[in-house]
Amino acid sequence: MTVDTEMKCLVPKVNNLSFVILYGSQLGQAKSIAEGLFEIASEHCLTTQVQSLNEIKDITELRKFDCPIVIVSSTTGDGEPPENADKFFRKLRKKNLSANTLNSVRYSILGMHTNCFKNFFFIR
Length: 124
Known about the structure:
4 strands; alpha/beta; 4-stranded parallel sheet
């Protein structure tokens, strides 16, 4: 399957996934890495999906996955989230979000940013 086909059906296909790839990308590098991971997974018969972080409508949706989640995200400027991840990070920082909301979520994060800025991957 192509990346575009998989991106349309993240939540309905929660079961039977090897892992899920979520990305936040301002200039396309993080998205390209996420798509590359998708292609490599497909070559190894792993079932996965790739989608931007902002397409997660509710943080608690992440608990629906019984597979690991791989987050590939860059930052932009002086540590701000990319446009296709800014809503996700705002939801993550909500004061009414319980501290244990994501305790059951298995995840890994690849954070990308140039080191010429003072705040390397410093999302406020």
